[in-house]
Amino acid sequence: MDLASLAIFRTVARQESITRAAHLLGRVPSNVTTRIQQLEAEIGVPLFQRDRKSMTLTAEGVTYLDYADRILNLAEEAQQVVRPGEPAGTLRVGSMESTVAARLPLPLSEFNAQWPDVTVDLSTAPTRQLIDALLAHRIDCALVAVPPDEMWFAADAVATTRLFREELVLLLPPGHPEIQGPEEIRPRALAAFAPGCTYRLLAEEWLTGYGSRTARLQFQEVRSYHAMIALTAAGTCFSLLPRSVLDLVPDAGRFTLKPLMTVDTSLATRPGFRTPAFLKFRETLHAFSDIADVDDATQ
User: Fold this and answer.
1) Is there a single domain that holds both residue 14 and residue 139?
2) What CATH number is given to the structural domain containing 95?
3) Looking at the whole model, is its pTM more than 0.85?
4) Is residue 41 within a helix (H) or strand (E), and if so which, with residue range?
5) 44, 56, 137, 288: which is deepest, by most CB within 10 A?
6) Which of 78, 103, 125 finishes a domain?
7) Under DSSP, is residue 68 helix (H, G, I), strand (E, B) or coil?
8) CA distance 26 to 4
9) Are both 162 and 275 inside the same structural domain?
């Protein structure tokens, strides 16, 4: 097993095809097939289920891919750290969906203009899943919103820098009367991302009075803010989202809003992670920060 074999395996796993993987890798298909067969023989288990049209991972293959990702990412990180110079290589950035939509387009454009040799691999997920991916070395940094009292957040394992302050607003269907408390909300379901989303957690806490009352909550899990807003517009649900996201929505003024709280978005990474690409990326994000008292002590 070597890094080249792992890289070939990862590409085939992602493409689910020898032919497509060979094209991306600049190799002939027979060479890719041979390398996969050699890897499987060395490990002693099949990594793929093969049929005429695609190759899908076996259960062992899924587990092996997770380790291959970590090994390849660590190898690239090591190469960047010990070879100081201009930022280059791949920077794996995780982010909440809202931050991608409302905060990252301009910084990413600026970063690409200044450092074109860096490839930004961007993925989105709720905060808890992003922290898990960060600690597992699947990503290099993440833009997250972490409540300070959350027990799953290992503060000593993650370094954070606050960057953006978001006003969270409760979004109610057009024509809905203004409200003072949760009991006045007409739709009974909250449109939200999967568990692990900080904004979903904060909505639950507000709806239950931070544990002081019992509330029968119903959830409509969605994968995008577009779906969340559409369900609210239809009167099926209500939702909680940053005002910066709502500002991107045409006719947002038709909805009934209730401002609830402010929450900071932070850039999180592993302590000591200091590749040239990451340092310049953090520097670029600082230039767009709307928090005047950014705390550099955690950098």
Assistant:
1) no
2) 3.40.190.290
3) no
4) helix 29-43
5) 137
6) 78
7) helix
8) 13
9) yes
Rounded Cα distance, 168 and 197, in Å: 13
DSSP E strand stretches across the chain: 48-50, 55-57, 89-95, 118-124, 141-144, 159-172, 189-192, 218-221, 237-242, 256-269
With tokens 């408390």, the residue in question is 181
SS3 242: strand
Region class of 210: left (phi > 0), else alpha (psi between -120 and 50), else beta? left
Alpha-carbon span 156 to 131, nearest angstrom = 12
- Cα dihedral across residues 120, 123, 126, 131: positive or negative: negative
Q: Which tokens is 21 given?
A: 């993987």
pLDDT tens readout for residues 132-172: 999 888 899 999 997 766 555 566 788 999 999 999 999 99
Q: pLDDT averaged over the chain?
A: 89
Q: How far is CA 218 from CA 23, 53, 187, 192, 283, in A?
A: 47, 41, 10, 10, 41
For strands 141-144 and 189-192, give the pairing: unpaired
Q: Looking at the structure, tell me whether residues 232 and 272 fall in a common domain.
A: yes
**Same domain assignment for residues 250 and 188:** yes
The answer to whether residues 286 and 187 belong to one domain is: yes
If asked whether residues 51 and 150 sit together in one domain, one would say no
